[in-house]
């Protein structure tokens, strides 16, 4: 250890005061973004797995994806997966451990209000998703992707999907033990990847099962993005409604049951 | 800002129960600006609960709480900017680098201390880029202290600030606490270290079973009472000595060969003891007259060792 007393004495006289809320949120969001981008496991989940799935199944015929260019089917599904990995899985695990290690409690003692912390987390999630979208779109375009449609419903789908997945991610983080959240969030990720129409078409499932699976948030997001980006639909009504319902339910449950410590 | 001496913390008859267990049982205390108030007590005495109520983490079941004149449970942003908090452990993300987290919390405040200077002051400069989980326990404690004071608060709560620190790091922490006091900050800390309370505290509040059992300056608590100790051969009969001593004195041998005389220790009493030794042909070794320590006071009040 260096000799602590050699440093000049800081002026410890009181001068308290908080900066305006938007500055606090920006600082916290910047921290959260840096923390996500340097976390190797997070990057595996948010970037590596989506890009590998996109490349592998576009470039090979391992999966029967129905008629049309393979990448046109896969790119919207992988974008949906990217949203889920960041808003749900990453956020649930990260926030769960912050709660476990008293980080949420400690931040609660700073001038940053809880609503500000949630706003900062949301901003960081959206920024990470933007990075994911750019990378996935670039890879897809390189693989011959021809997206169609209007960007507005795409943005609406992505935001509603983010809200829905964030709600349930925070609900899990704020109610379960951190280890349970880690296990459950990864399990949900794998299950929804398998049965949510991300890379395996829902058409392969029996009709009854399929109509149930279409109500999952991941299926609604993947299907809605496909309706617009693959088929040029103007307004994917049913997926938007399904996502809105999940968003309202998830955020309401999280607001009601989230425990800060 | 309120003048020095104005109470920074006022707790009146606080009660807090967790199920059947009573953590606080009518706790009342004051902490003044420009003073260090030490809450002293065994584990489970209610110290941390009291501090967490002051911080607004918990609500009392009964009683009143005023922190800098406000209700901490209302959780106002302005109040939080004026109060620094160092929890007993953790509170920093494991992957956050020490300097990074300190700068983050500093950025919430209008006129924070320079994070780099604060790290230097606490001997953490070379660990500024180390993730929190790779810091030693003592380094984590010091970072946590830095986070509590970086916003230049009027009042700080330090929950066991030096537990697990090596002597040099403890010294750096004590110096910072003394600097805070000199700057007019109200410091409320919990500790089980007698030496820490005796060295740092202007006021010591002894807490047991959720109640204040004694309070005052260390000198007031240890009082005018002194005791006399010496070593001699074991098994000296003390009855004769007791009859020679003033009424109200006590003498005992514990352990064998170690003698303790308590009572109104005046020059006459010392003369009586040495005369008695001389009459037995005994040379009293290591003879000394001590004030009672806080440890002794605590043992008397609670019947328990503080660090038991």
TrEMBL record, chain A:
Q: Which cellular compartments is it found in? A: Cell membrane; Membrane
Q: Membrane spanning segments where? A: 43-63, 75-97, 118-145, 151-173, 180-200, 240-258
Q: Which InterPro entries match?
A: ABC2_TM, ABC2_TM_bact-type, ABC_2_transport, Nod_factor_ABC_transporter
Primary location group: membrane
The UniProt entry, under Pfam families, shows: ABC2_membrane
Bilayer topology: Multi-pass membrane protein
Q: Where is the ABC transmembrane type-2 domain?
A: 41-261
Sorted keywords for this record are: Antibiotic resistance, Cell membrane, Membrane, Transmembrane, Transmembrane helix, Transport
Q: Which family does it belong to?
A: Belongs to the ABC-2 integral membrane protein family.
Q: What is this protein called?
A: Transport permease protein
Name the species this protein comes from: Actinomadura parmotrematis
UniProtKB/TrEMBL annotation, chain B:
Q: Please list the GO terms describing molecular function.
A: ATP binding
Q: Which domain of life is it from?
A: Bacteria
User: ABC transporter domain spans which residues?
Assistant: 9-234
**Entry-linked Gene3D superfamilies:** P-loop containing nucleotide triphosphate hydrolases
Pfam family for this entry, one = ABC_tran
Q: Which residues form the signal peptide?
A: none
Q: Where in the cell is it found?
A: Cell membrane
* Record keywords, A-Z: Antibiotic resistance, ATP-binding, Nucleotide-binding, Transport
In its keyword annotation, does this UniProt entry include ATP-binding?
A: yes
Q: Does the keyword Cell membrane apply?
A: no
Note the PANTHER family from the entry.
ABC TRANSPORTER ATP-BINDING PROTEIN
Q: Which named protein is this? A: ABC transporter ATP-binding protein
Please give the organism.
Actinomadura parmotrematis
